[in-house]
Design goal:
Elements: H1 18-30, E1 43-47, E2 50-53, E3 58-60, H2 76-86, H3 100-106
Antiparallel strand pairs: 1-2, 2-3
């Protein structure tokens, strides 16, 4: 396993910086306040642990999304998997057609379900 030494964070401007302030002003005017923000950072790019904002400030990102494992930003294996899938099929409504992924998900590692029944997988989607 390769080890990388990361130094930082590197703060180059007052926070939020001038470019971030412009984005935040537009956000306040245009986006519903129900879409909350924890802090006024406007991310531009990320690599591993480090996230750079629109003003070139670098922060350590110790967060992850809901119900996910953090692999760091742009982890090479994740990027490769996304590129491979994007070359095959990006999106198709699972409510209209059967997708190959449905069968793969349904064939979970669980070979026997509760009470002697075959296991079932509930596929859900958000939105309409």
């Amino acid at each position: 396993m390769r080890t990388t030494t990361v130094t930082g964070p590197k703060i180059k401007t007052a926070l939020p910086g001038p470019n971030a302030k412009l984005v935040l002003e537009g956000d306040e005017r245009l986006i519903s306040p129900s879409y909350t923000r924890s802090y006024p950072m406007v991310a531009k790019r990320g690599r591993g642990l480090v996230v750079e904002d629109v003003d070139g400030n670098e922060f350590f990102d110790f967060s992850a999304g809901i119900a996910v494992t953090s692999t760091g930003h742009c982890h090479p294996h994740v990027v490769e998997a996304i590129q491979k899938q994007a070359a095959e099929l990006i999106h198709m409504s699972g409510t209209r057609l059967l997708l190959l992924q449905h069968d793969r998900v349904g064939r979970s590692p669980l070979q026997a379900g509760a009470h002697g029944r075959a296991p079932q997988v509930l596929l859900r989607k958000l939105g309409r």
